[in-house]
Amino acid sequence: MAVFVAVAVATYALVIIPNYSAFKTLYANNDGMRDGYEYIESTYSLKTLTEFIGEKPEFFSIVSYNVNDPDSGIYYNPDELSTLGAMGNLFLLIEYERQVAEGLLDPKALVDLEEIEKYLLPQINQNAHEGAMEFLTAEDVPVTNDNAMRALLEYNSLPLSDYFWFKFGEDNLRALMDTLNLENTEMPVPFSGYYSVIAPHISPTVSAVARENLDYFSDMSRDSMFAEMIETAAEFIGDEQQNAMRKQFIEDERLAMSFIEERDALELLPHTTAREITGLLAGLLNNEVISEEVSIAVTNKLRWPMDSEPIKRSFSDYGAIYDSRMGMLSGIDFGTSIYDGHTSVQAVFFDDLPVAFFIHLSANHMQEDYQQRLIWDPALYETTIQQIEKNK
């Protein structure tokens, strides 16, 4: 156990929260490091992971089907509400391409990197943001709207997500969600607003006592809660003093929450379902979302993984958005297998995971390998079905 804890903390400190004291993390999160420790052996192989998926339906929602034969797919908790997270970037991308198609946004217009940095909360998915900035500041990459959107999709930079959120505006995003007519998917909110309202002492509008254990939100409607997140994010970028104060607090204390509290707070993020967001992907592939022009442009940008040689070895076509944050490992994707030529759409949500299990699984990105193989590996696909049926 001690060896695992030491390795897990080192991994978490390096991968998730750079510049944050690993010793302090270990001291403050002893309970979190034991949360789900008994399940860690399930992360050692795709076989054991698939067995765990079948045994623990409370942690998973999976929809995977051939676009030409949707009735024969995997539907595992398809209507369970799951954390939207970075899957919300799909809606930012759709709105982006809608505005480009209507001539409201110039994809070649230059982006001010200093403006993007306003949205940065230190130590919150900071590695992802640094990867996006490295891409955008490469010598042969002009910092255009188009490349900024590409960086958002590939790296899941939270500041880039918030930058586009405010660039489009709440009214346009609400209108988009109304147009898409999704019954169970909530509009994405700015991440800087979400993390600000859950962190004790950081928001001037909510006392730490009132927010203790997130009780502050228990009697609040989700619409009211999201409105507070949006308002708090607007204050964050619009008030230099607030911006500096929040950045310094998070630099010093991160979120001042335990890993378990941070995992539990995911419930406050917008929700979606595997069935609904997979249906949206299928609509995009069929050129049915907003317009043919918009659908084609969206799916083209989602194809950023096709620059990877390992992806090319198994797919003739592939597009995805992935997300990883405390207790959650999720992804949506579409792909055409080079082996039999079938095209699938998928949503795979590993949500509300035990902390120790999450840290171990996220260290090797096994969930991404699992998701990709569901498309091109018939043995894994059948094993998943067997495990689900076995444990019904």
Summed up, the domain count is 2
Low-confidence regions: 1-7, 9-16, 18-23, 206-210
> In this structure, how is the largest beta sheet organized?
5 strands, antiparallel
Radius of gyration: 20 Å
Provide the β-strand percentage band: 5-15%
Order of helices and strands: HHHHEEEHHHHHHHHHHHEHHHEEEHHH
Shape: globular
In whole angstroms, the N-to-C terminal distance is: 32 Å
Helix/strand/pairing class, anyone?
Answer: alpha+beta
Give the helix level as a range of percent.
Answer: 40-55%
Which sequence of strands runs across the widest sheet? 2-1-7-6-5
Number of strands: 7
| Overall pLDDT metric | 89
- Helix count equals 21
How would you characterize the overall build of this protein?
The two termini are 32 Å apart. The protein is of the alpha+beta class and 392 residues long. The longest helix has 17 residues, at 222-238. The radius of gyration is 20 Å and the shape is globular. Helices cover 53% and strands 12% of the residues. The chain folds into 2 domains: 35-83 and 271-390, no CATH class; 85-268, no CATH class. It is built from 21 helices and 7 strands. It has helices spanning 2-15, 22-28, 30-34, 46-55, 89-101, 113-117, 126-136, 145-155, 158-168, 170-180, 191-198, 208-211, 222-238, 240-253, 259-264, 274-285, 292-302, 309-314, 355-362, 366-376, 378-390, and strands spanning 60-66, 69-76, 82-83, 271-272, 315-325, 328-337, 343-350. The strands form 2 sheets. It has a 5-stranded antiparallel beta sheet with strand order 2-1-7-6-5, with helices on both faces. A two-stranded antiparallel ribbon has the order 3-4.
